[in-house]
Amino acid sequence: MTVVEKLAEYSAMTEQAMAEYLPAAEIPQGKISEAMAYSVNAGGKRLRPGLTLEFCRICGGDIKDALAFACAVEMVHTYSLIHDDLPCMDNDDFRRGKPTNHKVYGEAMATLAGDALLTLAFETLTKADLDPDTIVAAVIELSRAAGVSGMLGGQVLDLEGETRPYTEQEIKLTHNLKTGALFAAACKLGCLAAGASRRQMNAAEAFAKSMGYAFQLRDDVLDVIGDAAELGKATGHDENKQTIISVKGMEYCEQLILEHSEKAKNALEEGDFNDVGFLRELTDWLTSRKI
Q1: Is-above-0.85 flag for pTM?
Q2: pLDDT value for 24
Q3: Which of 48, 11, 35, 127 has its CA nearest to residue 86?
Q4: Within the chain, which residues score under 70 in pLDDT?
Q5: What is the pLDDT of residue 257?
Q6: How many CA within 13 A on the CB side of residue 158?
Q7: pLDDT at 232 (0 to 100)
């Protein structure tokens, strides 16, 4: 099975489970259900829930036990995209080849849809058929990854980077928080669902941090050289932002992608996992992708 086929399999499982957690459209405030579903069902690689399910599998767990966790991660990711696209942030008109949420439902409803997905994510964590201690640990992991110490903090640094020069280390920190933190949470939630060892949790986090950084660097490359029609969103948004490319050049950025891809794959060897073939192939595919 190819990387794309495996991701599609995990995506289908996640989408089927997601339908059970989203609010019904028939409620009086059904417009918010519609707006939430619009972005959740807009497609995408479903990479983060795929990582949750795969890490559960390679830690010896039953991936069905990790489905609620996988859905919660995707809800947080989708909320962040809705808010990132708002006029007060990146002001994007298209996401995954479709009009962004605020273009369809208006800014106020889009803001509420993002808020609703964020809160629903934590309700969804509690519905996992796992012991209470595991669920509490999952809530801690995802809340840290989504908050000031993670994705939200990274967005703050991203905005501040438009106002003053950033060093390479500041750019890396921004990427590690904005992108890497949720990747790490996705991987670690899969480990938690499987009852993984501390060694496996540490290896999963190391993998996610390196892979997430390489993934974001590749995003920066695609913003420069990518085709908007293939990407499903506008390119050139990084013109007003500082990236490794703008600070150190394209060649240096490409070298970093290779370096951190290798770090990610090497980290997998430290976890005593059952089988890391798919994750190794996934890392190569993500960091050389065209979309």
Answers
A1: yes
A2: 87
A3: 35
A4: 226-240
A5: 96
A6: 20
A7: 52
Rg (CA), the chain: 18
In the block, which residue shows the tokens 């695609």?
A: 222
For position 25, what pLDDT does the model report? 81
Phi and psi angles of residue 126, each rounded to the nearest 5 degrees, phi first: -70, -15
CA distances in angstroms from 271 to 64, 206, 236, listed in the order given: 22, 10, 39
What is the 3 state secondary structure string of 196-226?
CCHHHHHHHHHHHHHHHHHHHHHHHHHHHHC
Quick one: pLDDT at residue 162? 85
In angstroms, the CA 268 to CA 275 distance is: 9
| CB of 38 closer than 8 Å to CB of 85 | no
User: Contacts for 152-158 with beta carbons within 8 Å, 24 or more apart?
Assistant: 153/177, 153/178, 154/178, 154/179, 154/181, 155/80, 155/84, 155/89, 158/241
- What DSSP string describes the chain? --HHHHHHHHHHHHHHHHHHHSPPTTSTTHHHHHHHHHHHTS----HHHHHHHHHHHHTT--GGGGHHHHHHHHHHHHHHHHHHTSTTTT--SEETTEE-HHHHH-HHHHHHHHHHHHHHHHHHHTTSSS-HHHHHHHHHHHHHHHSTTTHHHHHHHHHHTTTS---HHHHHHHHIIIIIHHHHHHHHHHHHHHT--HHHHHHHHHHHHHHHHHHHHHHHHHHHH--HHHHTS-S-GGGGS--HHHHH-HHHHHHHHHHHHHHHHHHHTTTT-S--HHHHHHHHHHTT---
